[in-house]
Amino acid sequence: MEKETLDKLKYLIRKKKSLEEVCKELELKDYEVIGLITLLKEDGFLCDYVNGEIITLKKPANSNEVYQVPKTSNHYKWLFISDTHLCSSHDRIDILNYLYNEATKRGVDAVLHCGDITDGMYSNRPQQAYELRCQGFDNHLKYVVDKYPKTDEFKTYFVGGNHLDTYIRNGGSDMGRAISKERDDLVYLNPDTAKIMFGKTGILLHHGSGGQAYSLSYKLQKYVETIDDNDIQFIMQGHYHRALMMYYMNKYCYQVGALMDESNFSRSLGLKNEKSCYWVEADVDKNGKPTEVHSELQTFGDKLIRVRKNDKKI
């Protein structure tokens, strides 16, 4: 019954009904409706109750809050991934399962995911519907919750991205927040850009926009030039489905490839799709500054990856 009421409340909010009108429609007291709005917010629906009015938001704002991971070690191990595009018929759950199994073996401190965890739902790309494994926000959420590798060994920190923006445009719901509510091990940081600190060592996650540049390093280079933050030692950028690592302006910079097969959309535009990830190990001093960094690019082909059951720890 509560789900039915919440669905009806979503409908009334989209219709820009006043609090008084909503109370009348749902036959509820004003404080009961305000309580339900709080539940919707926790589920990722972009609404709020402000100054006596129910409002909707076009997009969640990037928070300036820095996510802090307590750490006293001077050695870190991370896995950098991006653009998994789950729910697409071109997603590669097999690669994800392999990577999380390998990450457990390697003892990583965290997986950092640089956006587009799902393929979203584009109303202006009608052909995309034929390349999705399922339809609708709830089904996409269930797919991620059920299929994304689970582990108690470490957490995955992720940002949203342009494909997750489609859920907001279509129905006003924040998929990233909804995923985090269902999975404690998948920590949603921000819609497209987030700063996370491992002790005193800072990593900036950024999901880019627009098409691929004529030069592989151009988009990453230009973005790094905008960063004026001495706490950030590592920058990772998703969206472009290309792999690149460079040391630039005293920062270790990564353009992280995708973990999906080439889609019909990217093929039609002639866009490269590099299935890859980065394993990163870093020694840092007492101030969190890297003294030695080892970066390993791992690439993948089209062959299905199988993880043997007796090796699987996820």
Characterization of the model:
- This protein is an alpha/beta fold and 314 residues long.
- The protein folds into 2 domains: 2-56, Arc Repressor Mutant, subunit A, CATH 1.10.10; 67-311, Metallo-dependent phosphatases (Purple Acid Phosphatase, chain A, domain 2), CATH 3.60.21.10.
- The chain has 9 helices and 14 strands.
- The chain has a 6-stranded mixed sheet, with helices on one face. A 6-stranded mixed sheet has the order 7-6-5-4-13-14. A two-stranded antiparallel ribbon has the order 1-2.
- The protein is globular, with a radius of gyration of 21 Å.
- The two termini are 35 Å apart.
- 37% of the residues are buried.
Please name the fourth-level CATH homologous superfamily of the largest domain.
Answer: Metallo-dependent phosphatases
Number of strands: 14
Name the beta content range.
25-35%
Q: What's the alpha carbon Rg, rounded to whole Å?
A: 21 Å
Derived from helix and strand composition plus strand pairing, the structural class reads alpha/beta
Helix content: 25-40%
Query: What is the CATH third-level topology name of the largest domain?
Result: Purple Acid Phosphatase, chain A, domain 2
**Helix and strand sequence:** HHHEEEEHEHEHHEEEHEEEHEE
Query: Could you name the ranges where pLDDT drops below 50 across 5 or more consecutive residues?
Result: none
Shape: globular
* Widest sheet: strand ordering: 3-8-9-10-12-11
Q: Any idea how many domains?
A: 2
Query: How large is the count of helical segments?
Result: 9
What's the structural blueprint in terms of helices and strands?
Blueprint: H1 2-14, H2 19-26, H3 30-42, E1 47-50, E2 53-56, E3 67-69, E4 75-81, H4 93-106, E5 110-113, H5 137-147, E6 155-159, H6 162-171, H7 175-182, E7 186-190, E8 193-198, E9 201-207, H8 218-224, E10 232-238, E11 244-248, E12 251-255, H9 264-268, E13 276-284, E14 290-299
Parallel strand pairs: 3-8, 4-5, 5-6, 6-7, 9-10, 10-12
Antiparallel strand pairs: 1-2, 4-13, 8-9, 11-12, 13-14
Helix pairs in contact: 5-7
